[in-house]
User: What shape does this take?
Amino acid sequence: MGTTTSGETIFEFFTGIINTEFGQQILITANNYSKQVILTARPVLPIKFLAEKIDGLNWKYTIIIGTTSDNEFKIVADVQTGRIKSILEGDNIPGISVTFNKNNYIIVILSEGSFLNKCTYKTGDEYDLSFTAQGPPSIEITFKRSNRTVKNDGCNFKNTLTALNNLRNDELTIPSIDINFQSLIDGSDIGNTVFVIIDNVDYYNHKTTPIIPNYTCKSFQTNNPKTTIFSKACPLISNVLRGIGNTAYEKIVYLMENVVTDQNDAYDFALLLVKYSMLKYILARLMYGNFNIKYILNKYNKKFLNDLSNTRFCKFVYDFTNPNSNIFGFNKYFL
Assistant: This one.
């Protein structure tokens, strides 16, 4: 399995689906994200989205990222029958990589040399923009950021949570989960994995979140978040992963060569396997009070999702059941 840089974490933000009528511009800011985690002392750039209908089959999507005061850039996409056909503008900007793929995503990655205000982003920030055109056009955003430290850059922030709270009028959307992992050196399995849960309560001493029948899923805000940190050494994903081989790496290679049809990169596929398995691993701990890799097995999937939908972590059901999620259907890769 591929390794991550020591101390690197991917933070993800999901908006859900944001709809707009043709010709109506919408502004997407941090307040729109339904699941938020630590921002590591940098804001998320606002995004303006405009869908314009050209004719019965053709549309033009305009995406503006950033602010006029801190600099912004525009991406214009040619969309035909609901699929991105080409990038008309914005794919040749220094320090900003813009591509699109067969899954109808525009992928924007910010790197060194960008003309943006250096305090409004971190090198490597990635915005994955997904679009649909059935009914009103919609946009879904996955935001990714590493927690690499930025030193001596002249950007002063009081602390991570304050930087986030300022975006949300001193309130933080909870609960949220951050998963930071490294693979073992030989790629045989996941190595040390750290789970950070932000909520208004902590989950130490086998404390769990209540499972409430017929629970109405909702979001919570707090200006006094509590952090729970769990560290697990080698959760043994290889024991529950399908495929042929003695290690996670060998099984991933087997799956890529014989089973997987919608993934082109083994490293990216491995990261998604970790996301799927470790997200279920920590959510099961929060519901049932103990860490056990068995909860990833398919025979527990129905009960797991039903229980999860009846807890305060119910919004995470989206990750496993929504076809737009990048780990949707990943249960097929596990025993």
Observations:
- The mean pLDDT is 78.
- The longest helix spans residues 266-288.
- The helical segments are 160-167, 248-258, 266-288, 301-309, 317-321.
- The radius of gyration is 20 Å.
